[in-house]
Amino acid sequence: MVLAVTVMARSLPDYAQLRASEHGQMIVVRARDGAELVSLGPSYGQWLEAGEIPTVMKGAMIAVEDRRYYAHYGVDPIGVLRSLWVRARDGRWRQGGSTITQQLARNIFLNNNRTFDRKVREAMLALALEAKFSKQQILELYLNKVYFGGGAYGIDAASRLFFSHPATSLSTAEAAIIAGLVKAPSRYSPTADAEAAVSRARIVLRLMEQEGVIGPGEAAAADLDTVQLKQDHGQNSVRYFTDWALPQLDMLLPQTFEPIEVWTTLDIGMQRAATAAVQTNVPKGAQGALVSLDRDGAVLALVGGTDYVASNYNRATQAVRQPGSAWKLFVYLAALEAGYTPDSAVTDAPVTIGGWSPRNSGGRYAGTINMRSAFAYSKNTVAARLGDDVGFGTVAAMARRFGITTPIVTNPSMVLGTSEVRLIDMTQAFASVMDRGRSIAPYGILKVTSAGGEMLYRHEPPRDQMLVAPHVAAGMTDLLQTAVSTGTGRAAQIGRPVAGKTGTTSSNKDGWFLGFSSGIATGVWMGRDDARAVAGLQGGTAPARAFADFMRFATAKRPIERFETELVLPEWQLEPDDESWFGNPEDYYFIDEYGERADPFGRGVPPDDERYSDEFPTRLPVDPVRDPSRDDRRPEPYPDDQLRPPFPAPSAAGQDLLDRATGRNTAPRETSRVQSQAEPRLRRPADTPRE
Prior knowledge:
Layout: H1 2-11, H2 15-20, E1 27-30, E2 36-40, H3 55-65, H4 77-90, H5 100-109, H6 116-132, H7 135-145, H8 155-163, H9 172-179, H10 185-188, H11 194-210, H12 216-221, H13 238-245, H14 249-252, E3 260-264, H15 268-281, E4 287-294, E5 299-303, H16 328-337, E6 345-348, E7 367-370, H17 371-376, H18 380-390, H19 392-401, H20 423-434, E8 445-450, E9 455-458, H21 470-485, E10 499-504, E11 510-517, E12 520-527, H22 542-554, E13 590-591, E14 597-598, H23 655-662
Parallel strand pairs: 1-3
Antiparallel strand pairs: 1-2, 3-8, 4-5, 4-12, 6-7, 8-9, 10-11, 11-12, 13-14
Protein name: peptidoglycan glycosyltransferase
EC number: 2.4.99.28
Domain Glycosyl transferase family: 42-208
């Protein structure tokens, strides 16, 4: 055995290597203001030399884990015999015989398997460690590497995790709490069960007094009830956000095992307000979820349920539920894009489409009303008529355009929200309307840095896209604002402009409210996980009230913003062109066969004519009757009594060009300077070769 221990001691890593070894990757998650939200994975804190570790901490650990630490050589025969005697007396293992050195060997080199082979190897490694290193070095390694729960390895990490200060300033009571964690970190963790932690610490204080680490007076003065535990900033609901955001690191970062810090978009104050809004307003026996997005897509708050500890299922990002009338957002967007306006007259009357006959809530019909009123009071028959008019496939395409990723049915009843959706997707759609029809992509990670401050990733805003014309988004905002001011969403009013929509499914199984104000878009869902009905749950009740409670806090420090709901269009957008809003048609141009710009209005371009502007290659005639100095390039028709172009109107293509394109005349020939009557006269550079 002496030979085996000698060989093993020589093969052990040196002290510097043991000190540098770590298990796993530590991830510190920070809020948008830099405050630490949560630390995931192993946390090692600062390495403390033996002389920097408080004496009371050393004494507490030895008193609890290995009272004969300075009397053995790695394995304590008396401790082993005592453990065997307790096992024979009680019929089960109640007391371990492992020394601090054995625990260190197990933590560094082995696992926790309860096998005889592992115990033998552990004992041999402990003897080898004692042969190679001093008692102070072994105790220093142990106190800096032992696991204390919550991902904390070492006393400094544990002190920062539980008490928010370094281990160099640990009090007697705090040292007793930390020393008591080694036996069962998850059971005695102060953040999980404060009463159990304090009860265990009382035992530690008694053992410290028995072993002479502290005197009776110091033991009596250690008041465990006054120990201040670290505040949980985001409450347990912050884990819903981290569960959604952190898996994205696999795509954002190259593979790395070094400790990293993740700076997120989450606002601590808004997260607390969101948690309180959901918990306060959710009906008894139901669940709730909330997502809030800034105008650029940054996730400000995310709550996936009423209690993460009780259920970590994220209802904000994972659950799919029917949105009810909140789906009418896409129906009315499609109608507005098709030419309707908020003032357009629609009919609220019984209707049957493909054998399906929708009815309004309450069974009442208003006859001929405008779209604004129909949306505000969530008239189902009007939504059905609009969907039938623009096409149910068009409504589905509009939902896809605005970020809905779940399957969408295209039968007539889809206009009332029969397709299941995710809360975060619906909130994204409302945020895009808030941003005047531009695309919004939710994101939660701002940047990632290494432990040394090196930048590993920084969020770059994606290039946004116009999902609908600005006047369509303005019309939709008009409808959404009316729904809150006078319609079904009145409970969501917060004393400043709010636009939003309620949603309620059949038998009150789901209640929704989604809306925006002052650059923040928020969605709220409530219901039961088993999809059973909830008495009195409508989108305009509990979800709308939760929305209002949260938004009052979220928008308090933001300026009041008036919505842009005017449908005033530029003159050139008044033409019946589906794509006219993409730009001014006067800026369109075509390319001729020589790669030059050609006149897009079919009049040809004479090579030298002073009546043409030199500003654009596509030169347009100047009307001599009008003021020549006026900068008006819009093409106008030529009346018979005014000057006509001195050249004939061109056809689609000249015969010479068609012959060469079809191969009828492949022999090269010099192109005539005089163009045919059927071919437009085009300018080209002098150095361009002719065929």
